[in-house]
Design a protein that fits this description.
By secondary structure, this protein is an alpha+beta fold. It contains twelve helices and nine strands. Strand 6 and strand 7 form a beta hairpin. Helix 1 packs across helix 4. The radius of gyration is 23 Å and the shape is elongated. The C terminus is likely disordered. It comes from uncultured Desulfobacteraceae bacterium. Its main location: cytoplasm.
Length: 254
């Protein structure tokens, strides 16, 4: 099993290199660090997974190697989406193990459960599977970006496409994550949303990363319901700026 994991990780690194336009053997050595060894490359050559130039400078995946890489990368990035979108945990740690043990049927089931996402939490493309091709049009028509929302509209976040880990953690700290219901208060000159009872200003570049479900009844959180009730009460009393309300109404920014 340990040998298989090392082979898988080598193929995965070669796939990542291909996405970056890299093919130098030295780039693979750098990516793998202490895990790299020449016998690993010899095994991949023997199995027909890679090709190495005569001068030993360039290394690329063969057709069989790309098929294996596609399967591994698809499993890894879908696992990241599952952990981040559904479980809310460290999406990198669990995904590294999942890719080595998941079978195609399980991976397709997870993909379907998540609505056939196009990108992982880092914003990298998720290779499509057989389950995606028949439902791609349906999935696309079910999701909209925050930039497409109308003022006053409420919707639930489906997923967030972002390559910046710091930005992801910042959004998470503000409760802007998959499954959370948001309401658009204004879209000019700055986009402002209500999320978990807080009024939050969102940068335009971040708005394009936040995708929400269309035509789905938004689910109010317990906190939002409490704030709505308190707002109604204070309006009736003519004291919208009462101390009790202001303590609950927080303002943040991304």
């Amino acid at each position: 099993m340990e040998k298989k994991i090392k082979v898988d990780e080598c193929i995965e690194n070669l796939w990542n290199m291909k996405e970056k336009g890299q093919s130098a053997l030295n780039d693979l050595k750098t990516a793998m660090g202490d895990e790299f060894n020449s016998s690993l490359i010899e095994n991949l050559l023997h199995d027909g997974m890679v090709m190495v130039t005569d001068d030993g400078v360039e290394i690329t995946l063969t057709e069989d190697g790309e098929a294996c890489g596609r399967r591994l990368i698809r499993s890894h990035r879908l696992a990241e989406r599952l952990v981040y979108d559904v479980l809310g945990g460290d999406f990198e740690a669990g995904a590294c193990e999942f890719e080595h043990i998941a079978n195609p049927g399980l991976v397709n089931s997870i993909c379907t459960l998540l609505g056939h996402p196009r990108e992982c939490p880092h914003g990298m493309p998720i290779p499509t599977g057989s389950c995606c091709r028949s439902s791609l049009r349906t999935a696309e028509s079910s999701v909209m970006r925050l930039t497409e929302m109308s003022v006053g509209q409420t919707a639930r976040i489906a997923y967030i496409n972002c390559r910046d880990d710091k930005r992801l953690h910042k959004l998470e700290s503000l409760h802007i994550r998959p499954g959370t219901t948001v309401k658009l208060h204004q879209n000019s000159p700055t986009t402002v949303i209500e999320c978990e009872g807080a009024s939050i200003a969102i940068d335009e570049s971040v708005c394009a990363d936040i995708c929400l479900w269309k035509n789905e009844p938004a689910r109010k959180t317990h906190e939002t319901q409490n704030i709505s009730m308190e707002r109604a009460y204070t309006q009736k009393k003519g004291t919208l700026s009462s101390l009790g309300f202001l303590k609950k109404f927080k303002t943040g920014g991304v």
